[in-house]
Amino acid sequence: MGETKRRVETEISGFLSKRHRYEISMVNDTIFREYDIRGIAGKDIDRDAAVGIGKAFGTYLNSKLTTQDSKLKVSVGRDVRISSEDLAAGIISGIVSTGIDVYDIGICPTPLQYFSIFHLNLDGGIMVTGSHNPPEYNGFKISVGKGTIHGKDIQKLKQIILNKEFVISKKKGRVENYNIVDAYNSYMLNEFSYLKDSKFKKLKVVVDAGNGTAGAIVPKILTCIGCDVITLYCEPDGNFPNHHPDPTIIENMQDLILETQKAGAGIGIGYDGDADRIGVVDRNGDIVWGDSLMIILSRELLKKYRGAKIIGDVKCSQSMFDDIERHGGNPIMWKTGHSLIKQKMKDEDALLAGEFSGHIFIGDRYFGYDDAIYATLRLVEIMKNTGSDIRELLSDIPQMHYTPEIRIDCPDSKKKGVIEQVVSKFMKYRENGNAPYPIRDLNTIDGVRVIFERGWALMRLSNTQPVVVMRIEAEDEKSLNDYKAFLGKEFIEAMETI
Predict the structure, then answer these.
(1) Are 452 and 438 in contact (CB under 8 A)?
(2) Any idea which of 23-27, 61-65, 78-82, 443-447 has the lowest mean pLDDT?
(3) How far apart are alpha carbons 54 and 78 in whole angstroms?
(4) Could you report how far apart the first and last alpha carbons of the chain are, in Å?
(5) Distance of CA 424 to CAs 177, 268, 417, 435, Å?
(6) Are residues 372 and 263 in the same domain?
(7) What would the pLDDT profile of 316-359 be if each residue is shown by its tens digit?
(8) Contacts of 120 (CB under 8 A, 6+ apart)
(9) Looking at residue 318, which CATH number applies to its domain?
(10) What residues make up the domain containing 30?
């Protein structure tokens, strides 16, 4: 167990000190967000805070899942950020103080932490990760049972900490190391190793891990299933020295674009820091966003399951929803957020879901959580089985003019009020009919998605960063620019009044 075990033992030995209880009570309550806990490491979140969160998680889990048959067991994984090892040690010490056993699975992508819950039949777990946020950030994605919690349940953890309502077990939980990487690799090779057969054309793939967790896993698996792999930034480095690991930002995809073109590769694939989001580049170097990847995956799925429910978030192209319907599927638009999407998949018994940002959730032949590595393998499988590259697979999709995600800085204290103001304004536009561009419909399930005659525009608040997110799509460039300017004007006016 090494250093992690020593840190955990140290935390436990001093756990009930007055100093520790005081520091736990001072946890910054702004870190408890809609579908995870997140803040600046060393400022908003430190080891003491992690211990408190671990205690709260264990307390919550005991209240939800305690049985007389067996002891509760969870897993804790972490990304490569500089602060993650320290925070993981704090989380583990807090959990075991409540009598729960912990599998310490070490450094791994977030999907592997989810995988461990299914593979080991655990009662939940915590992933220590800052995801796609800047290096100074870190946080926790929390699973209870087989799903990640969000909203009110995350707020319950906060209240447990603030009220000091912790379970203190006379018998501490045990900590056991477990190699989840080998288990995951074996699972994937068992599923996809047939693709290395000589009857399949060799596929050249460029992989950009952004110095995150994907680099230690993806190239090996792709090589084993018959791909010619070219790697970029696959060495783990929590400082992310080459570019920020967020494939939704075009600037972060430039090296991948150039290398894919240079190598004549059939596909280039980028990942965020914890590998739950995928970014794709086609052979021409054009970015293929998450909603287009959903078209490829949904078409394949609907060959087997006609009428299947398929979920896309509010940022997805209308072309995606239309294509799903044309191919016999039942498209559902839903809120952005990995926890929210997973819950909606469960509620609707959906087999596939995706976000524009590259979170892909596959329930067909898999467990239904967002796993960018598994999504990669399903895409490669389709490419090998059809003999077509990404560009060819999307050749019949109507060409729309669109923006990527436009992220506008907006303080956390203001962004909710700004969105409420914009929603109210557009509802008045629809009622009065005095908008500069005719409004056909409004969708307010997550912010406001305005349906115009020749396209649509979205504005919503980010649940992970102090920003407001916009996205616009239109049939022609003039309409795109008109709708973009209109939405921008409404944002500025709302900011001035808040």
Answers:
(1) yes
(2) 23-27
(3) 14
(4) 51
(5) 52, 42, 11, 13
(6) yes
(7) 999 999 999 999 999 999 999 988 999 999 999 999 999 999 99
(8) 73, 75, 103, 178
(9) 3.40.120.10
(10) 2-178
What are the tokens at 367? 């467990």
Q: Residues 159, 54, 114, CA angle at the centre, nearest 5°?
A: 110
What is the bridge-based pairing of β-strands 287-288 and 309-313?
A: unpaired
In the chain, the amino acid numbered 185 is: N
* Whole-number Å distance between alpha carbons of 277 and 247: 8
How many helices, marked H, and strands, marked E, lie in the chain?
Answer: 16, 22
In terms of domains, do 261 and 134 share one? no
pLDDT digit string, tens, across residues 61-100:
999 886 555 799 999 999 999 999 999 999 999 999 999 9
Using CA atoms, how far apart are residues 61 and 262, in angstroms rounded to an integer?
51
Give me the number of domains the chain comprises.
Answer: 3
Which residue, among 148, 151, 86, has the nearest Cα to 117 in the 3D structure? 148
Respond yes or no: is residue 131 known to be catalytic: yes
Q: In this structure, what are the phi and psi dihedrals at residue 232, rounded to the nearest 5 degrees? A: -130, 125
**pTM of model > 0.85:** yes
The catalytic position among 131, 143, 317, 357 is: 131
